[in-house]
Amino acid sequence: MTTTIVVAGGTGDLGGRITNALLDKGADVRALVRSTTDPAKVEKLVERGVQVVWVDLSDVAGLAQACVGASCVISALQGLRDVIVDAQSALLDAALAAGVPRFIPSDFSSDFTKLTVGDNRNFDLRREFNAHLDTKPGIAGTSILNGAFAELLTYNIPFLNFKKKQVGYWERADWRVDFTTMDNTAAFTAAAAMDSATPRVLRIASFQISANELTAVAREITGEDFTLVRMGSRDELAAYNKRERAAHPEGEQDVYPDWQRGQYMHSMFSVQNDPLDNNRYPDIHWTRVQEVLAKRR
Hints:
Layout: E1 4-8, H1 13-24, E2 28-33, H2 39-47, E3 51-54, H3 60-67, E4 72-75, H4 81-97, E5 102-104, H5 121-133, E6 140-141, E7 143-145, E8 148-149, E9 166-170, E10 177-180, H6 182-193, E11 201-203, E12 207-209, H7 211-222, E13 227-232, H8 234-247, H9 258-268, H10 289-296
Parallel strand pairs: 1-2, 1-4, 2-3, 4-5, 5-6, 7-11, 8-10, 9-13
Antiparallel strand pairs: 10-12
């Protein structure tokens, strides 16, 4: 019997990869699509054999009808409170009304369960939604925590800046940061969606790497010298983020304002995924950091 999985956010980058991974595993995929979605992205789903259902994410009854017969709902939605809390709550209520047994929320982040409220605005929204999820005994939730997406290492972030030939860190140069590629995250999520016995939280990482280790790898990949730079302490970074957030309230309406990027850096150097659940699905090939950095060139 074919397994039906509902995906919300399937036209996005991660959602599209999750959809492809589900199809590769033989699942029937039903994508929930909003009226404002780019038609070209929808057409790509249709071409792959995905059943597209046009929905209003505030219409619980309509969402419930779209979820009937599914064994799991995956949310890959991205946004602020109106999406992460409000829209996901409507989707959760719809899944519950439709009798769907399992729900995977759009967490895909560092382990916010180990962070303090206020450390990361976007993670606080995920924490709030998960508290709501835990009040629903009729449906089992599974959060997939993957650290940071490994592709960020190619974007000249403070942790690895190719333009400056610099590796930056806060607090400790031997602190190992969790990174998972989007493809690995998608493959693991697809496997978890088709696994009827997942726990409440699953933690993964394609690799965990410190600033010391990353400096050596960057030199190995590029053949050039990289400087290791201490950017400050975690407390100093947290204080800076707090000042910047207060100085730029307009950022509250933006998913990724500069101070939110700083909060992500703080989270990366504050929590680690432990223990890892990488071995749960043995067929997944976990990408090495060298593979990620080599693609940049």
